[in-house]
Fold this protein.
Amino acid sequence: MIRLSIGAQRLASHLVAGLVLLVLAASPSHAAAKIQRLVSPGGIEAWFVQDATVPLIAMEYAFAGGAAQDPSGKPGVGNMVAGLLDEGSGDLDSKTFHERLERRAIELSFTSSRDSFRGSLRMLKDNKDEAFDLLHMALTSPRFDAADVERIRAQVLSGLRRDTTNPTSLASRKFLEVAFGDHPYGRPGNGTLDSVPTIDVADMKDYVRRILAKDTLRIAVVGDVDANTLGKLLDKTFGTLPAKASLTPVAEVEATRPPQRAFVPLDVPQTVVTFGGPGVRRHDPDFMTAYVVNHILGGGGLSSRLYKEVREKRGLAYSVYESLLWMDRSALFIGNTGTRADRAGETVDAIEKEIRRIAEEGPTQKELDEAKSYLKGSQMLALDTSSKLAQALLQYQLDKLPIDYIEKRNAIVDAVTLDDARRVARKLWGQGLLTVIVGRAPQAAAQPAAAAPKAN
């Protein structure tokens, strides 16, 4: 029998920092939606919103693992698996598998993120049986045919070659190396030009065997389907997976302490600057304070301090942003901008100056009040599709938040005080920055930065 625990929910955006993803809402039907905790007859659990506004069903799901579970000498295995699971399964070759997806307008995809292996499934209500059947086949009997493996490998390698001349890609990769060294978080999730050619079918089958298991599975479903029907579909799709994953332990790690600076020479017109440092973990009591004060510094778009100082006052860059990024075993704050090569040093100086100022002085009461008002009022505007809502509900589960989190969120924002904001600003930015500069920056830009003065 299906067991449901129903909590009235208003649905809102997930707080993301860098990596991650915000979600859905806007229509009155979504705003009043009820999130149900559904447990199928076979014990598969999902967060579920029944919504018959349109005859669509969207499902997002994830297994613990992701790129952090790639073998240490072969980064990119999870990424290769994600590219191949929908390239044929069982007795269906790649062409036949994709023809069945296209015939029924079924959208099926997989991605390997830092800490999880994720999947997405979207279909018309009338095509749900075939959609879930195809997903079951992809998860339980992938073919990994040689021609498909080499085609996907060639696509990955092509992207990696493009990245060698992309300053933003180079800066992001170098920043993670500086921040995490030889920890799994410091490895490129898509692999490298050296590692991807060495990945074989045995590596990918071993990854599937270790990662795709029921004990770490998290599911979110939004759409026009009733609970009993969904429970049966979940059992049919996921019920035969192994009971337990076989994960390699990933050590806790704190990002390298600032200040540090790295320079990557690249002959491109625009210099890219990526900057950041140790962040705040999702379940740290200071997380919401960090989120609010980060909005003031660099997450508030046109209203942020960095935008005003770097773009409006000095005209150094078209855009500049900063966000929080949290992982299962660590956290960062990370920002990015691009500027003319001859103004790279001036841009870095302006960013560091504003970072020091907020670390020493904190925000003003007016900035804090405006940030809190925006963050409380804008959450619903981020919600507009069933797929995005499902993404949000999945992220809440991965972050181990309660099912009624959205009902509590505004009160958590309101509880942030000016003293909290000033204290957490010192905690985040008082040590300065890890900075990576990619481009034709002056040689001086490659020299180590002087330590930023500590705030009292």
